[in-house]
Amino acid sequence: MEFRDRHEAGRVLAKALAAWQAQPEVVVLALPRGGVPVAWEVARALGAPLDVLVVRKLGFPGQEELAMGAIGPGGVRVMSDVPRLWAVSDADVERVVEREQAELARRERLYRGERPPLVLAGRVAILVDDGLATGATMHAAALAVRAMHPQRIVVAVPVGSAEAVQLLNTVADEVVCVHVPEPFRAVGLWYQDFGQTSDEEVRALLQGEGASP
């Protein structure tokens, strides 16, 4: 299965989440930036409110695409075995955390502005991204949301690796992944258009100004 773009992936994912349509307790949380167009389609189809949950991947120094962990709101930090296996020093880890914490705060201000985050206590939180590779970022997101006392956490993605789906099943109440290819390789390989989502597009979609192409 290959998706044309993130909007099409969101529409396909929404069909897999149809059981949650028109349920007043449902909230859709997008992981920016790439998860926002996907989540926008999901929220529109389900008739649910949309918000962002800003989490940041902690990239391995010199090889930033390799996740050694992730951070989320409320001080949540998830680490993989990479720092230990690759002999990354504590000082190097803290430098990466400090940089990504500043970016997390910047994006919170940029995307949400003065709007307060949605209240999640007692609600069904559907966490959406454009795909799962290692699952570290979504893992941090799920832990951050769990601390906000939702009724249920549903992780929902169009595509993901079997390993990441297995990981997320340990922290979410439900994982919905439309396509689990083998071999997986990378999220972007399953999209015809996987261009970077801009901050401007994220803000427009969150403000209800976006349109499905």
Automatic annotation (TrEMBL):
Does the keyword Transcription belong to this entry?
Answer: no
GO terms for MF: glycosyltransferase activity
- Transmembrane region positions? none
Q: Which CDD domains match?
A: PRTases_typeI (cd06223)
Q: Which residues form a coiled coil?
A: none
Q: Which InterPro entries match?
A: PRTase-like, PRTase_dom
Kindly provide the name given to this protein in its UniProt entry. Phosphoribosyltransferase
Q: Which organism is this protein's natural source? A: Variovorax soli
